[in-house]
C-alpha cells in the first residue's frame, strides 16, 4: 500500500505558501555552496566608477541616483525595463533589450485578451499596442548602442521616436498601471521595474553594487551563493540575469554562463515573461491572488504567447534534486532559475508545457486511481515518485482552497515531485477554467474575464478569492470531497476523460 499524504505548501490557491515573503534584507536559501570566490567589493567599485560614483562613498548613493545615472530604461505598460548604459554598448545586448521589451508588451497584450472585448478602454489600448509592436519590431541594437552612455533616460525618447509612438507609450503605460482594463480607477500609476543583466558578470556586478550602496544587505548580496542565482530583488526592483550559471566551467568561474536560448529559441523571452506575469498579477490584484495562483496564470500566459513554457522560474529547480525547501514568492528574494548543464527535465515538463502539463497530470491521475479506496477518490488521487524514482506514494484531492488547508506535508524524498505536481495541477486547472469551465469555449472565456474583473474590484483582499469563484460560477472552488458540484471536482472529472 502506498503512503497517502497531501501538501499544502504549494497546493493552495488561497495562501502564499509556507515560505514567507521576505524583506530585501532577508537571506534567501541557496542551492549548495558554489566553488567560487567572488570579490564583491571590487565588482561594485567597477560598476560605480563607470557610472561616475565614488566607490568610497557608495553608502551615500541612493537607489534613485543609481538607476538614473547607470541605466537606459523603457516604459512598457506596467513595466520599466532597464539595461545598464555600459551593457548597452554591445549591439547584441541592445538587440536582446528590444526583444525583451516586445516580450513584456506581449504579456500585457495576452492578459488584455483574457479580459475580452468588453474591458473598459480596450479599443484604444489595442491601437496603442499595435503602434508599440510596430516600433519594437523595427528597433535594433545598432541604434541603442550608439546612445551616449552618460546621457541616460527613456530609450524611445533618446532615439527620437515619433510623436505617435511616444503618445502610445504614455497612454498604454497609464492604462495598464492604473488598472483601467479591470475597471479600477487608481489615481497613481503602479509600475514594476525590471533590470536585466545580459551576462553573469553584469548580474554579479549589480548584486555587488546593491550590497555596496546598502551595507545592511551585504549579508544577502555579498555571498558566493549569488553565483547560482538568476533572479532576485532589491527593494521593489526585480533583477533578472539573461544567462544561467555554469559553475562547471574550467575557465569562466563565477562569470561563466549558459544562454537561456540554449534550451529553446525563445527561452530568454519566456523566462522574463513568466517573471513579469507574476509581477503584473501582483501589481493589479495584490493579496487577492496569492503567488501560487499568480504563478499558474503566468505559466498560462507564457504558453499562450510562445506555445510552451520552458523556463526555470518555479517548481523543482534543484540540480538533480538537491535543493532545500524554498519557493519563489513575489516580493521576496529568490535564487530561482538555476540550470546546471546536466539538469534534465522532470516527467512533468517532458512536453515543455505545450499541453498545459495535462498529459503528465492524467498519467499521474491514472496511476493514483488504482490506489483509491472510494469511488469518489479515483479522479482525485495522483501518484508521486521520490527523488530516485524508486518509491511511489499518492496524494488526494482537494488541492485547492480552504478544504485543502489541513493537508499534511509530503515526506522530504517526495518534495521535488510534489512541487512539479502542484505547479502542473494549478496550471492545468487555470487552463481548464478559462477554456472548458463553461459549456463552450466562448462562454468559458467570458466567465473567466468576468471573474478576473470582479476579483480585481473586490474590497476584502485575500478573502475575495473563493467568494468570487462562487459568485461568478455559482459553485464553490472546491470541497472536502470534490465532485461535479464544485469547480475542482469538475476539473478532475474532465481530466480523467482526456
List the helices and strands and how they pair.
Blueprint: E1 3-4, H1 40-50, H2 63-70, E2 71-76, E3 79-84, H3 91-115, H4 122-138, H5 141-144, H6 155-158, H7 163-177, E4 192-197, H8 200-213, H9 218-221, E5 231-234, E6 237-241, E7 243-245, E8 257-259, H10 267-285, H11 291-306, H12 358-369, E9 381-385, E10 392-396, H13 415-436, H14 441-457, H15 464-473, H16 487-496
Parallel strand pairs: 1-10, 3-4, 4-6
Antiparallel strand pairs: 2-3, 5-6, 7-8, 9-10
Helix pairs in contact: 1-8, 3-4, 3-10, 3-11, 4-7, 10-11, 11-13, 13-14, 14-15
Can I get a quick summary?
The protein is an alpha/beta fold. It contains 16 helices and 10 strands.
List keywords for this structure.
single chain; 498 residues; alpha/beta; 5-stranded mixed beta sheet; 3-stranded mixed beta sheet; 16 helices; 10 strands; 42% helix; 9% strand; globular; disordered N terminus
Amino acid at each position: 500500500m502506498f503512503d497517502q499524504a497531501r501538501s499544502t505548501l504549494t497546493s493552495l490557491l488561497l495562501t502564499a505558501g509556507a515560505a514567507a515573503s521576505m524583506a530585501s534584507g532577508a537571506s534567501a536559501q541557496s542551492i549548495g555552496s558554489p566553488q567560487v570566490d567572488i570579490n564583491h567589493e571590487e565588482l561594485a567599485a567597477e560598476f560605480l566608477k563607470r557610472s561616475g560614483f565614488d566607490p568610497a562613498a557608495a553608502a551615500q548613493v541612493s537607489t534613485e541616483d543609481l538607476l538614473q545615472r547607470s541605466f537606459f530604461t523603457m516604459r512598457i505598460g506596467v513595466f520599466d525595463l532597464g539595461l545598464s548604459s555600459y551593457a548597452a554598448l554591445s549591439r547584441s545586448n541592445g538587440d536582446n533589450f528590444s526583444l525583451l521589451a516586445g516580450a513584456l508588451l506581449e504579456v500585457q497584450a495576452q492578459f488584455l485578451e483574457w479580459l475580452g472585448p468588453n474591458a473598459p478602454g480596450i479599443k484604444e489600448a489595442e491601437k496603442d499596442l499595435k503602434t508599440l509592436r510596430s516600433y519594437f519590431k523595427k528597433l535594433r541594437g545598432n541604434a541603442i548602442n550608439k546612445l551616449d552612455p552618460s546621457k541616460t533616460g527613456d530609450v524611445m525618447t533618446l532615439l527620437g521616436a515619433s510623436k505617435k509612438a511616444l503618445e502610445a507609450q504614455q497612454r498604454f503605460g497609464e492604462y495598464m498601471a492604473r488598472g483601467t482594463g479591470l475597471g479600477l480607477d487608481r489615481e497613481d500609476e503602479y509600475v514594476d521595474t525590471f533590470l536585466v543583466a545580459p551576462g553573469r558578470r553584469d548580474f554579479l556586478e549589480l548584486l555587488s553594487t546593491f550590497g555596496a550602496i546598502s551595507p545592511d544587505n551585504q549579508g544577502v548580496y555579498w555571498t558566493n551563493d549569488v553565483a547560482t542565482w538568476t533572479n532576485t530583488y532589491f527593494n521593489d526592483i526585480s533583477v533578472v540575469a539573461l544567462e544561467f550559471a555554469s559553475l562547471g566551467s574550467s575557465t569562466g568561474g563565477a562569470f561563466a554562463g549558459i544562454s537561456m536560448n540554449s534550451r529553446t529559441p525563445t527561452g530568454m523571452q519566456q523566462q522574463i515573461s513568466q517573471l513579469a506575469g507574476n509581477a503584473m498579477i501582483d501589481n493589479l490584484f495584490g493579496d487577492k491572488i496569492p503567488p501560487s495562483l499568480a504563478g499558474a496564470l503566468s505559466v498560462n500566459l507564457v504558453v499562450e504567447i510562445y506555445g510552451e513554457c520552458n523556463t526555470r522560474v518555479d517548481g523543482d529547480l534543484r540540480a538533480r534534486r538537491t535543493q532545500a525547501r524554498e519557493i519563489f514568492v513575489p516580493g521576496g528574494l529568490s535564487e530561482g532559475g538555476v540550470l546546471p548543464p546536466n539538469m534534465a527535465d522532470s516527467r512533468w515538463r517532458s512536453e515543455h508545457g505545450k499541453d498545459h502539463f495535462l498529459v503528465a497530470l492524467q498519467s499521474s491521475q491514472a496511476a493514483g486511481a488504482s490506489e483509491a479506496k472510494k469511488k469518489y477518490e479515483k479522479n482525485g488521487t495522483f501518484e508521486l515518485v521520490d527523488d530516485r524514482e524508486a518509491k511511489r506514494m499518492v496524494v488526494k484531492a482537494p488541492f485547492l482552497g480552504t478544504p485543502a488547508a489541513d493537508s499534511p506535508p509530503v515526506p522530504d524524498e517526495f518534495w521535488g515531485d510534489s512541487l512539479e505536481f502542484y505547479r502542473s495541477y494549478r496550471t492545468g486547472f487555470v487552463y481548464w477554467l478559462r477554456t472548458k469551465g463553461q459549456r463552450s469555449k466562448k462562454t468559458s472565456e467570458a466567465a473567466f474575464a468576468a471573474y478576473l474583473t470582479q476579483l480585481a474590484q473586490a474590497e476584502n483582499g485575500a478573502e475575495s478569492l473563493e467568494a468570487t469563484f462562487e459568485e461568478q460560477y455559482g459553485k464553490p472552488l472546491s470541497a472536502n470531497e470534490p465532485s461535479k458540484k464544485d469547480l475542482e471536482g469538475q476539473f478532475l472529472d474532465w481530466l480523467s476523460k482526456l
